[in-house]
Structure formats: C-alpha cells, structure tokens
C-alpha cells in the first residue's frame, strides 16, 4: 500500500494504484472526521426507526406532526437554485458503471443521477470504481472502450450530474475508523465531495446529491449538518451543495415540508420514489391486520394512496419554490417484440404525461431510449420555460387518511405470487453477482422493486387478508411449494447462468420470507455475500 493511513483508519480490502487516487490520505482523513462527528447521530436515528416501527405495530397510525405545525404554517421558501438545476425536465438514472455513465451523460436528458444506491450493487469494486468514474465524468475525461472495440466518450453537451449516495442504513464494511466500520452514506458523500467540489467550483459547477430512504425530518437534519460541516472543512461557501430528497417512505410523506425546511439552504426539491414508497408502506404496516395490498402489478401511480402521495409532494414542493421531480415507470424498451415495445413506450408516455400535466418539473427514465418520450411529455407542458415551479396546487388537500387509503387489496393470485418469487430470486442472484439493476420479464428491477416482491409474500403469509383469488390462504407451506416450483423453472430457463450466486439467492429469498423477523432491507443480509 503506497498511501499513509490517517490515524485510526484501516482499509480491509484490496487496493491498486487507481483506487489509491481515490483513497488518498487526505480523503480518508475527511471520511474519518465525518465518521467521528456524525456516526453517533446516525446510529440514534436508525434506533429511532425501530421505536417508530414499534409504535406502528401497536396500532398508532402516522399523522402530520403536531410539534412542527408552525413549520408547515409559516411562509418560507428554499434558497434560490443554481442555473444548472433550473431545468430538469428529464432525468436519466443508472448505476455508476463507466460505460453506462457515459451513455447517460450523452443521452439528451437534462440531468443524470449517478446511483450508488437502488441500482448499484455495493461491492468494493463497484464503490471505488464508481468514485473514479464520477471524478472522470465531472472532469469530462471519462472514456471507455468495450471488449468489442466500441469507443465511448462524452459529447459536447451533457447532462448535469447528481449523485445518490447509499442510505443511512447501509455500511461500508471495508473501511474502519477507530475500529468501527463507517456509514456507506457518509463514505460515498465524503469521497465525491472531497475530490470534486473545488474542481467543479472553478468551473462554475458544484456537487449535487439525491438523498434516499429517509424516514423523518431529523434524518434530513443530519444530512444538512453533514453538508454544513463538510463545506466548512473544505472552505466552500455554505449553501453550495444542493440535494433532492427522495420521498420514498410512508413516514417521510408526513414530513415533506419539514424535510424541505431542514435542508432549505441546500435543497433542490423532492422526488417521488414510488418503488421504495410502496415497499415502505408494506414494511411499516406489515403487522397491521387491516393492511394488505394486491399483487405488485396492481399497485400503480393512480391507485388512491399513490395518487394522494404524488399530489401532496407536488403541492408541497411548489409552495416552497422547490422542484418536484417524478419517479420512474419500470417499463423499458423491449427488443424483438415491436407490439410489446410499443405498449411499454406508451406506458412510459402516459406516466410522464400525467406527471407533467399535474405540474411536476421533471421525471426519471431508466433507459436512454426513453429520453425522447419523456422529453415530449414535459416539452408539451413547459415549452421554453425551464420548469413549472410557479404552478401552485391549492386544489390539493391531502389528509392523513388519503395517504393511508391502502387500496386495492385484490387480486392476490398464484401467478402474482410466483412472479414475486421469480423476480426476487433473479434480482438477488444478479445483485450478489455484482449487478444491481437488471431487466426481468421486460421490466427494470432494482433493490426497491425487488423489496416489494419479497415483502409482499412475507405479509400475505401473515395477514388474514393474504388469500389467493381462488380461496387458498397464503401460508409458509404454499410459499415453500411455489418457491420449489419457481426454482425448478428458473434452473431450467437459465441453464448455465444458474450459478452459485443464484443458489444463494434462492436460499436467501426463502429465509427472508420464512423468518418471522422481518429483515429491514434485503441489501443488509445481501451485503454479507459480497467481497
Ligand atoms: C427504484 C429506483 O431507484 S429507479 C432508479 C434506479 N434504476 C435505474 O437507474 C435503472 C437503470 N437502468 C438500467 O440499468 C438498464 O436500463 C436496465 C438494466 C433496466 C436495462 O438494461 P439492458 O436491457 O441491458 O439495456 P439495453 O440492452 O437496451 O441497453 C442499450 C444501451 O443503452 C445503455 N443503457 C441502458 N440503460 C442505461 C442507463 N440507465 N444509463 C445509461 N445507459 C444505459 C446500455 O448500456 C446499452 O449501451 P450500448 O448500446 O452502448 O452497449
Ligand atoms: O428510488 C426510487 C424508488 O422508486 O425507490
Ligand atoms: Mg428508492
């Protein structure tokens, strides 16, 4: 190892000369500072999630917080946005893989979310090469030659880069400070900020973030404190960092104003992260005997509780002069089936038309082939205007009961249950093999969508309402039977692609579903299979 480790820091993973350009002594010292200052609070907030779950399990329904009523009632706005964040009508997202990053930046989208989270498998190599790719992308030096000899380089006009670090729950087990492993969120943020902020500021840009999976405004306060501290440490003006918070937990939906308020100097809006949101609803109400959602495919953006959430997010953002960014339809282009492809593209178009028509300022796409479709939807509403933040929605009056109106409850079917098992195993098999985003049955699958698949079956087994359309109660035995059948089918279908990782995935999926202790995130036990 050529680098001198700062006092108290250890690296428990292989290094090479390139990795050492990211894991410099100074950068690691910065990671260590953030860890020593904020790790205690991070742990308290994670512990607070457990207490909150216990309250929900005891039957206390979430509501808008009485103690922050003054924040909701007061007239305040977020700080003005930098020029390169005014127009985000189409945002492409994707893992921090080198070729995909170049394709995303060149895709014609206004912005690109480089993802260390839902679509990324957090192996050591993915994390560190992701930081290398981000650094090179910011400097516009990123290039790539495929094994077939295809050359990739950046166009003259590229998307604005936002980076999504891991959530507060994930750790980076390969770095310890004073003997403790460090937070994945702090690690991803610290390295990206440390290596790039001064370069970007010299070029009239800055580091922008997406903040995932928060469950309360106190968690947003922690991010804000991290930003303030980091800016001070590196002598960067306060308010330089900007971040969009994903509202993707049911509890955060009750604290949207408060989250924007905590981050108001650093905010660039909210995003409707629909997949984790559905997962969060299932997770938080999994022990509530009245709660039971239908097959995953029936939970669309137009069902009552999703519609209420999407409109409340929009209204809240625009009241605070903040961008409202729509989430992602899981539909992707389908090769070799023009009819199915047209249907998928039509689905994306309808999704973006609805968001744009409602008043959203932009929306996510999963694939470069979807950029023109989303662009058309938002162009039709925005024209030459960069956004529609000025469009207020006084007509939207969302009550707690609207956010909690969990319909539809039917149908739950054998096909739906088997699809959940199939998707869950295939996704986990891919994730353990190092790829965090894959097409399965012509849909984009990532950590958030796979969470829905496994959480649904856990809940159907334990809910009195977990009954198949044909009258059979979902039980451990029925699950074991379907699991066996799906595994046999997958082995047949995947042939030599059914590797040890898929075997592990099938076992893990069964354990996650059978265990009465609901595992908070599948990426937590999944991480034990990496490196
Ligand atoms: C719940 C949430 O968090 S949503 C956000 C997280 N999810 C995402 O970001 C989705 C990212 N998308 C993807 O990873 C991919 O599009 C998939 C896995 C869904 C589909 O992948 P594939 O079927 O392999 O795509 P396909 O073969 O059509 O790709 C064609 C080309 O587009 C590129 N491409 C596809 N998706 C993306 C993307 N999101 N960003 C950049 N390039 C992309 C491919 O790299 C490929 O490039 P090439 O022709 O130069 O080799
Ligand atoms: O991160 C996005 C989501 O839908 O989950
Ligand atoms: Mg998510």
From TrEMBL:
The keyword Acyltransferase applies. Residues 412-529 form the Malate synthase C-terminal domain. It comes from Craterilacuibacter sinensis. It is an enzyme of class 2 (transferase). The active site is at 164 (proton acceptor), 446 (proton donor). Keywords: Acyltransferase, Glyoxylate bypass, Transferase, Tricarboxylic acid cycle. Residues 8-69 form the Malate synthase N-terminal domain. This is Malate synthase. PANTHER family: MALATE SYNTHASE, MALATE SYNTHASE 1-RELATED. Residues 160-404 form the Malate synthase TIM barrel domain. Pathway: Carbohydrate metabolism; glyoxylate cycle; (S)-malate from isocitrate: step 2/2. GO terms for cellular component: cytoplasm. One of its GO terms (biological process) is tricarboxylic acid cycle. Its EC number is 2.3.3.9. It catalyses: glyoxylate + acetyl-CoA + H2O = (S)-malate + CoA + H(+). It holds the Pfam family MS_C. GO terms for molecular function: malate synthase activity. Belongs to the malate synthase family. PROSITE patterns: MALATE_SYNTHASE (PS00510).
């Amino acid at each position: 190892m050529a680098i001198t480790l700062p006092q108290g820091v250890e690296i428990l993973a292989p290094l090479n000369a390139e990795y050492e350009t990211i894991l410099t002594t100074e950068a690691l010292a910065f990671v260590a500072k953030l860890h020593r200052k904020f790790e205690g609070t991070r742990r308290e907030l994670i512990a607070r999630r457990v207490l909150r779950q216990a309250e929900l399990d005891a039957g206390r329904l979430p509501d808008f917080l009485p103690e922050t009523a003054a924040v909701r009632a007061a007239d305040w706005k977020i700080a003005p946005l930098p020029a390169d964040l005014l127009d985000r009508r189409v945002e492409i997202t994707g893992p921090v893989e080198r070729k995909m990053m170049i394709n995303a930046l060149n895709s014609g989208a206004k912005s690109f979310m480089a993802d260390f989270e839902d679509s990324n498998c957090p192996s050591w190599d993915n994390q560190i090469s992701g930081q290398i790719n981000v650094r090179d992308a910011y400097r516009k030096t990123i290039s790539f030659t495929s094994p077939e000899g295809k050359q990739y380089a950046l166009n003259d006009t590229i998307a604005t880069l936002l980076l999504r670090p891991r959530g507060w729950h994930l750790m980076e087990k390969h770095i310890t400070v004073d003997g403790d492993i460090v937070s994945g969120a702090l690690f991803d943020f610290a390295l990206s900020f440390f290596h790039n902020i001064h370069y970007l500021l010299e070029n009239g840009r800055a580091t922008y973030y997406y903040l995932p999976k928060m469950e309360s405004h106190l968690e947003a306060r922690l991010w804000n404190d991290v930003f303030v501290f980091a800016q001070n440490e590196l002598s960067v003006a306060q308010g330089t960092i900007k971040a969009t918070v994903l509202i993707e937990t049911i509890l955060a939906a009750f604290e949207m104003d408060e989250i924007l308020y905590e981050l108001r100097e650093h905010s660039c809006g909210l995003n409707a992260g629909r997949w984790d949101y559905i997962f969060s609803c299932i997770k938080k109400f999994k022990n509530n005997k009245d709660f039971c959602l239908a097959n995953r495919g029936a939970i669309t953006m137009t069902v009552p509780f999703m519609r209420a959430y999407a409109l409340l997010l929009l209204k809240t953002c625009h009241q605070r002069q903040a961008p409202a960014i729509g989430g992602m339809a899981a539909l992707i282009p389908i090769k070799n089936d023009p009819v199915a492809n047209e249907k998928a593209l039509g689905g994306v178009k309808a999704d973006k038309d609805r968001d744009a028509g409602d008043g959203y300022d932009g929306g996510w796409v999963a694939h470069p082939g979807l950029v023109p479709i989303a662009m058309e939807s938002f162009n039709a509403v925005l024209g030459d205007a960069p956004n529609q933040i000025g469009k207020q929605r006084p007509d939207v009056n969302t009550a707690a009961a609207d956010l909690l109106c969990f319909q539809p409850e039917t149908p739950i079917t054998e096909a739906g249950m088997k699809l959940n098992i199939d998707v869950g195993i295939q996704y986990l098999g891919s994730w353990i093999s190092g790829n965090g985003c894959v097409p399965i049955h012509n849909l984009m699958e990532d950590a958030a969508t796979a969470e829905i698949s496994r959480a649904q079956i856990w809940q159907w087994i334990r809910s009195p309402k977990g009954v198949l359309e044909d009258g059979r109660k979902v039980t451990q035995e029925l699950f074991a039977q379907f699991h066996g059948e799906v595994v046999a089918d997958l082995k047949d279908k995947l042939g030599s692609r059914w590797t040890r990782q898929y075997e592990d995935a099938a076992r893990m999926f069964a354990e996650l579903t059978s265990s009465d202790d609901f595992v908070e995130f599948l990426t937590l036990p999944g991480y034990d299979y990496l490196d």
